[in-house]
Design a protein that fits this description.
single chain, 10 helices, about 80% helix, about 0% strand, globular
Length: about 250
């Protein structure tokens, strides 16, 4: 097993542990760390299947799937449209810019969680705010492979309960993963030759999820989430600094 494969396995154990402990964080951590050793398009091609499998499980593990699908379908449709609009944004030519954008997204995501600013989007505004949030999420997914912003803050703003929120995130992230797969396939980024490393990533992420679920039982989830967001902020700032020449 070469050094890259070992690194990928470690990344997905860590990303899976965070997801198992707090319910999200797989794409931000995976894309952020993998971007240190490979271009974003290659990182996304490794990440997309583990993300799909874990989020599909999260999407179906609860009683709210049908109700959420009926409520959120305009947002999900715009997620797909926004993602497909940027089908070639993760290519080799855009790798540096994509890494900078990824770093900014990670930092903004972490800061929004640390500050815990509470927004409320009432029912009247959701008719247009949902599609806008979905479209912006799709564009972010296309550019960075990360599908958490701004859809997660939006879900919090419309008052979803904890279990609904977790299942809604699984639904949205699954749709994003499918749309991102279409993007990657359209630019030839998916190859059978990457099968072994993807298989390692899948095994590692489910091992990480199991560890994360154990960790959730033994640690204060709020404390764990704070340290997770601090680490994500540091990673985002590092990626920006490195890609803009400030990181040495």
């Amino acid at each position: 097993m070469d050094a890259t494969t070992i690194f990928v396995a470690g990344v997905f154990v860590l990303a899976g542990a965070v997801k198992g402990a707090v319910g999200l964080g797989l794409p931000p951590i995976a894309m952020g760390l993998l971007a240190i050793v490979m271009p974003p398009v290659e990182a996304a091609s490794v990440m997309v299947l583990p993300a799909f499998l874990t989020n599909a499980w999260q999407m179906l593990a609860g009683p709210y799937f049908r109700g959420l699908a009926r409520r959120l379908w305009p947002l999900l449709l715009c997620v797909v449209a926004g993602t497909l609009m940027g089908s070639d944004w993760l290519n080799e030519e855009n790798a540096r810019v994509g890494t900078i954008i990824l770093g900014i997204i990670l930092a903004v995501y972490a800061l929004s969680g640390l500050v815990s600013v509470q927004y409320v989007v009432d029912a009247a505004k959701q008719k247009w705010a949902g599609p806008v949030a979905g479209g912006l999420t799709g564009l972010t997914t296309a550019a960075t492979g990360v599908s958490s912003i701004p859809v997660v803050p939006y879900f919090q703003a419309i008052g979803l309960e904890k279990d609904e929120l977790v299942q809604a995130m699984g639904l949205s992230f699954t749709v994003s993963a499918v749309a991102l797969t279409v993007n990657l396939a359209s630019v030839g980024a998916l190859s059978p030759s990457s099968g072994p490393i993807v298989a390692v990533a899948i095994a590692a992420v489910f091992a990480g999820i199991w560890l994360g679920q154990l960790l959730r039982k033994s640690l204060n989830p709020r404390t764990f989430r704070v340290w997770f967001l601090v680490a994500l902020l540091a990673l985002g700032l590092y990626l920006v600094a490195r890609s803009t020449g400030f990181g040495g």
